[in-house]
TrEMBL record:
Adenine glycosylase active on G-A mispairs. MutY also corrects error-prone DNA synthesis past GO lesions which are due to the oxidatively damaged form of guanine: 7,8-dihydro-8-oxoguanine (8-oxo-dGTP). It comes from Neptunitalea chrysea. It catalyses: Hydrolyzes free adenine bases from 7,8-dihydro-8-oxoguanine:adenine mismatched double-stranded DNA, leaving an apurinic site. This is Adenine DNA glycosylase. The gene is mutY. One of its GO terms (molecular function) is 8-oxo-7,8-dihydroguanine DNA N-glycosylase activity.
C-alpha cells in the first residue's frame, strides 16, 4: 500500500492537465487510450481534440465515412488503429445501443482493444479493479522491484500482470492507474530519470543496486526489412496528377498514394523505371527526381527508401486529380510531407 499511496500522492501534485482526465466517459477514455498507443501525449493531444470536436459522441464517429476518419488521423501513424477505432465505434453505436461494455472481459471483445486498453476503460470509467500495464508501468515495476524478467517474453507478460494486481490500490484504482502511467512518463523516464527527487528512492531496488539503466529488460526480436519505393508523380498539361488507394493489406491499407513502383534494390537510373510497362503506357516528356537522395521513412519493422519521380506528360491524364484537390485525400505522412514540399 505504501507504493501505491506514494504514487497517488505524487500524481496529485504533479499530474498534467489533460482533457481525458476530466471525464469518466468511456468513449473519450477509449479514444485517448487508442490514440496514445505508440504515441507521445504531445503528439496525440491535438488529434484527441480534433476528434472529440468533430465526433463528440460514439454515434458521430460511427456514422462518419472511413476516408474522413483516416484523413483526420493522418500523421498519427499506425493506421490500423484508426480502422479498428471506426469498426468498434460502429459496433458500439449500432449493436450495443451506444453503450460501451462496463467490464474488462466484455471490453476485450471489441476490435482493437487489448489488455491495456480494456483495463484502462474498465478502471477509469467503471471502477473495476484492473491494473494497467503499458511501457511506463513495466519500467516503474521493473525498476522499483528489481525484476530482470524480460517484459516482452510470455513469462514476463504474465509475471508483470500478476505483480500489477498485487501492488494496485484497491479503493482508488482509477486514480492509481493514471498515477503509475504518469509517473513512468514524467518521473521514472526511460533515459536519465532524476532519481534524486524521486519519492520512491528510499525503497527502489534498481537505485539501490545501480541498475536503473539496465531495467526493464527487453529482448530484441524485431528484424528490420528494407523496401525501395519509387513514387511516380504524374503532371499533365492541365495540372492534374494521379493518386491510387492501397488495397493490399499491410502498411497504409486504404490510404491514398501516388502510383508506386517497388523494387528489390535501389533504383539508380530512371531508365530502369521507364522500361516499366506502366510508364510506357503514357507519353512521357520528362522524368526527374524531386530529391537528390532517398527519403528514409522508418517504421517499426521496416525502413522505406523512397524516391519521388516527377513525370511530365504530353496530353491529359484520364481520371486525373487536379492539384487543388490532392490535399483532400488521406495519405501516409511520408506522402503528405512530399505534397506539402512540392506545393500542391
Amino acid at each position: 500500500m505504501e507504493f501505491s499511496n506514494c504514487l497517488i500522492d505524487w500524481y496529485l501534485k504533479n499530474k498534467r492537465d489533460l482533457p481525458w482526465r476530466k471525464t469518466t466517459d468511456p468513449y473519450k477514455i477509449w479514444l485517448s487510450e487508442i490514440m496514445l498507443q505508440q504515441t507521445r501525449v504531445a503528439q496525440g493531444l491535438p488529434y484527441y481534440i480534433r476528434f472529440t470536436e468533430q465526433y463528440p459522441a460514439v454515434e458521430d464517429l460511427a456514422n462518419a465515412h472511413e476516408d474522413e476518419v483516416l484523413k483526420l488521423w493522418q500523421g498519427l501513424g499506425y493506421y490500423s488503429r484508426a480502422r479498428n477505432l471506426h469498426a468498434t465505434a460502429k459496433k458500439v453505436a449500432f449493436e450495443l445501443n451506444g453503450k460501451f461494455p462496463d467490464t474488462y472481459k466484455e471490453l476485450l471483445k471489441l476490435k482493437g482493444i487489448g489488455d491495456y486498453t480494456a483495463s484502462a476503460i474498465a478502471s477509469i470509467s467503471f471502477g473495476e479493479g484492473q491494473p494497467v500495464v503499458d511501457g511506463n508501468v513495466y519500467r516503474v515495476l521493473a525498476r522499483y522491484f528489481g525484476v530482470h524478467t524480460s517484459i516482452n517474453s510470455s513469462l514476463g507478460v504474465k509475471y508483470f500482470k500478476e505483480l500489477a494486481h498485487e501492488v494496485k490500490h484497491e479503493k482508488q484504482i482509477a486514480i492509481y492507474n493514471q498515477a503509475i502511467m504518469e509517473f513512468g512518463a514524467n518521473q521514472c523516464k526511460p533515459q536519465s530519470p532524476d532519481c534524486k527527487v524521486c519519492p520512491l528512492k528510499g525503497s527502489c531496488a534498481a537505485l539501490a543496486k545501480d541498475e536503473v539503466k539496465l531495467l526493464p529488460v527487453k529482448i530484441k526480436k524485431t528484424k528490420i526489412t528494407k523496401r525501395y519505393f519509387n513514387y511516380i508523380v504524374f503532371v499533365d498539361v492541365n495540372g492534374n496528377t494521379l493518386l491510387q488507394r492501397r488495397t493490399k493489406k499491410g502498411i497504409w491499407y486504404n490510404l491514398y498514394e501516388f502510383p508506386l513502383i517497388e523494387t528489390v534494390t535501389p533504383v539508380k537510373n530512371k531508365s530502369v523505371l521507364l522500361e516499366e510497362s506502366y510508364l510506357q503506357d503514357h507519353h512521357v516528356v520528362s522524368m526527374e527526381l524531386f530529391h537528390k537522395g532517398d527519403i528514409i521513412h522508418k517504421l517499426s519493422h521496416q525502413h522505406l527508401y523512397t524516391k519521388f519521380w516527377i513525370v511530365h506528360l504530353h496530353g491529359n491524364l484520364p481520371n486525373g486529380i487536379s492539384f487543388a484537390r490532392v490535399k483532400e485525400y488521406a495519405v501516409p505522412v511520408l506522402v503528405a510531407n512530399f505534397i506539402e514540399e512540392f506545393g500542391f
